[in-house]
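User: quick one, fold this
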Amino acid sequence: MDERDGATMTINNSPFRALAHAEKPKPNFFIVGAPKCGTTSLHEYLQHHPDVFMPYYKEPHFFGSDLEGSRFRQFRDKPEKYLKLFRDVRSEKRIGESSPWYLASTYAAAEIHCYDPGAKIIIMLRNPVDMMYSMWSQFRYSGNEQIESFEEALAAETERRQGKRIRRAAHCITGLYYRQMTRFSEQVKRYYDQFGKDQVMVIIFDDFRAQTPEIYRAVLEFLELDRSVKVEFGIRNPNKEVRLAWLQKLIVSTGFSLMLLKDRLTFLATTSRLAPYTYRTRAVEGVIAAYTRYERRSPLTLETRRRLANEAAPDIDALSALLNRDLSHWYRVQD
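Assistant:
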């Protein structure tokens, strides 16, 4: 069975068509990834626009039925639970959600298209070597990754495809295949094939970081929204380390993970009516803050960067051709 046949089978036997006919507020645009490419920042910037509704809960991953890991099962086949994320919609023109693993999914593009062929899609990409290293660091923090060396984690990919060297508490198994998640040319092409280029906006992280106001206004134009709205820009989702190692060990030993704990608390904060919304969200942020400290990541070794850049070069060239933009500087490593 090839990818297209698999996607068709899941769609014909899935809740996606039913969701399209639900008489409740539901998303009409999606930030589909990639992870560690600025999706959190864009999600939060858009939350401040009066004509946009973005739920406090980020990354529900209702679509992407082929994604592996407990993180992706919380909303799968549960359209009513998914729709609860949008029940506070009032008169906003655009309703969105951000699930950065939709890009790596083989099926998500077709599933979203089945749900809404007119949906707008936003894709965010960065140098694949930087993304892999950043993702590994994030996974070490969240409890998804048990290997303490980035190079060793890369070398373990073959074993992991055999189900080995995967922590019982791993919530995102798909993400442990680090090289696979940066095959951007085939990932972007899936969305172009489903939606056409006019409905897909691709943002390069380098541009987003260097020209944030300009890129934000371009996003608003893409979404057909008022571009005059002012937003305070800043760093979101910086590199994180565990403040309390004993707490991480305790959580992981139960077969759970920080990410799943955060997801459960955030969903309750989003949907509960037991306390004011502000208090609920502050409570979640307080739990995360107690667990977390922020610090810069150690630089990747030149040898590893050069090796991974050489491996990624063919896909980067293919992506350059697809986007009609030269991205070869991503694999030109300076001494």
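User: anything notable?
Assistant: The chain is about 45% helix and 10% strand.
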